[in-house]
Amino acid sequence: MSGVLLGPVVVIGLGGLGAPIAMALAKSNIAAIRLVDGDTVEKSNLHRQVLFTAADVHAPKARVVAEAMRRLGFEGVIEVAERFFVPEEALEIARDASMLIEGVDNLPCKFLVADVAALLRVPVVHSAAIRWEGTVLAKPPGGACYRCLFEDIPHGSEAPNCAGEGVAGPLVGVVGAWAADRLLALREGALEATELARFDGWAGAVRRTLVRPRENCALCALYAAGSSFPIDRTRYAPPLT
Ligand SMILES: [Zn+2]
To answer: What is the distance between the alpha carbons of residues 119 and 222, in angstroms, rounded to a whole number?
Structure first.
């Protein structure tokens, strides 16, 4: 594998999905991991974010997750970034990443992660879980991107803050573990095309499909041309109408 893979795996959002992602990665041989979340543990998180206990209330999520990874025996380097992945700071936070993986519940932030991955030309895993449904999108270099599927920020979105909120139920554990597994598959070069997995937690079913790049995807066009573009807040502002 090329030297670029020596940089840290950057985990963005450490809530309902990010925490199980980090737990699954604790059992891997990843050399370095950067845990990114500017949030602290709230009392209201406890019932739905299994990793956090009452003793963690008011502690930074990134630090609590780092300690939990150590307890599980993770032997690599852990960097704690108590910061939100916002447009002004995203490139700096992800600078030397070898791969990105996100479990944020905020759509503009997902687009931001997709754009940063394209700029850095690194593989990325997106994960989401809402009620009984989950999705994991794993993108190797050159594969279809998040904007191939979802194009742009939907109406009615909130401004990006990238706190990792959660949803109730065991689905987040399954989706988080799957996302971590796909990250390791990407690292091994096992995925040649972008893979989308959809989880139906009600039926207990998983459906995997390969996603082809969308012909008019603006981000893929920039990626193919090797172009750069500014990461500024207007790019992630939801449409006003
Ligand atoms: Zn695309």
So the answer is: 9
